[in-house]
Predict the structure.
Amino acid sequence: MTKRFLITGSYGQIGQALIPAMIERIGKENVVATGRKKRIPLFKELDVIYHRLDIRDHYGLRSLLVEYDIDILIHNASVLSATGEKNPQLAHSINFEGFYNALEASRELNLEQLFAPSSIAAFGPTTPLVNTPNTTIMEPTSIYGISKVYTELMGNYYNKKYDLDFRSLRYPGVLGVEEPGGGTTDYAIDIFYEAIKTKKYTCFLGPDVRLPMMLMSDCLKSTFDLIEAPNEKLKHRSFNVTAMSFTPEELVSEIKKYIPEFEIAYEPDFRDGIARTWPQSLDDSVAREEWDWKPEYAFEDMVKFMLEGISNRLGIPYK
């Protein structure tokens, strides 16, 4: 039997890639997209079921879950790191209250599963930054990171106390051709747009800031793989996943193989400080052992994919 999904925060970077992929897999009648904005052009084009919903609306969320007989809730609604530091009050309201609402709705309605992504932002300066293990100290310094630790701990608590099948992935930076949505790792998307459009870019991170990343296709693959994994195989509820790690300097060097005239300047701002508290690389061996996780794209393949995808999106040849 095909499961029915409701996705919160569906117009975000991941949501705009996830919705079409889910429709292709299970049909649009089994996918309900929600968000606080009006239906975006993509959702009109897909003719997806869409409802405006503030994730803090207790009655609104429960009503939709009941109306569409939802089996699995994917809770993507979140204020990201850079945006959250500009407005921590909004980040607290959306990220904490919103997730608690998702937890309670899942418990009260006995949903089959609640999937809520975490992030490398859940780690902090006291975490081992190289090959960060799946289980380690987590003391983030951003409101976004703190909210993701809350997500993981509360999800684990509801799993143990109420037997709620909670699952979470600590997404690294996610690279796709869609416009970025306010995250610290979004430089690695902006840089491709500017390399193609203007041949120059000013980076808000220093040249040596190494961060783990993955292509959107691998992000979706890891999401589907974990959601579909047999519950009895899972010993953990939150998992590191990664595909590659690189610095802005290394990314520029690879882009220049295709666009030799590309120029970069570095003007680190507050996001540089955030990024330097995050892991430089992740140990995702637990995900590989428990549900056979394996990425498909390596660094060089990612760069070529991004250049071709964004070039096609802009209608501007990159070489």
Remarks:
- The chain has two domains: 5-173+215-240, 176-212+243-281+296-314.
- The chain has a mean pLDDT of 96.
